[in-house]
Write a structure and sequence with these properties.
By secondary structure, the protein is mostly helical. It has 6 helices and 2 strands. The chain has a two-stranded antiparallel ribbon with strand order 1-2. β1 and β2 form a beta hairpin. The longest helix has 23 residues. The chain starts with a helix and ends with a helix.
Length: 151
């Protein structure tokens, strides 16, 4: 499991390095051929991880309902982050993997509601959710890399 947590932490660091130096305008520009922007992808990573691990384990998510409502699967960019809001999302992106690991080690993830993803993969435990989430994060990392070249 330690490797899965390390992969999550590293992918988050890569995302932060990719967006470092981009302006608010660049982060919110929707490149031609895309349905969303870099800012949406970053917030979506935070939200999805929370839903897959905490909500499906019957626990309270560690992010606001507003963030979840705006950036969960099936949403599109509707908000523009202020500099302050962007910093908050970046802090969540970087810090929540450590909290997730601490909570896992504390044994709080005892129940899990099975969930079939849009890719058809069935998540039936915290461990399968962590592995799937890492794949999901890698896909969005690739999208962010592509978008960065276009903004």
């Amino acid at each position: 499991m330690d490797t899965q947590f390390e992969v999550l932490k590293k992918s988050r660091e890569l995302v932060l390095n990719l967006i470092d130096g981009l302006t608010i305008e660049q982060l919110h520009k929707i490149p031609e051929g895309f349905n969303n922007n870099i800012a949406w992808n970053v917030a979506h990573l935070v939200v999805t991880q929370q839903l897959l691990h905490y909500k499906l384990s019957g626990l309270q998510c560690l992010v606001s309902d507003e963030l979840i409502d705006n950036y969960r699967k099936g949403t599109k960019p509707s908000e523009t982050f202020t500099e302050e809001e962007l910093e908050e999302v970046k802090e969540l992106l970087l810090g929540l993997p450590d909290t997730l690991k601490e909570d896992f080690e504390a044994g709080i993830f005892t129940d899990y509601t099975s969930y079939k993803t849009s890719t058809g993969f069935v998540l039936d435990s915290f461990k399968t959710a962590l592995a799937f989430n890492n794949m999901h994060e890698g896909m969005h990392l690739g999208v962010i890399m592509a978008m960065r070249k276009l903004v």
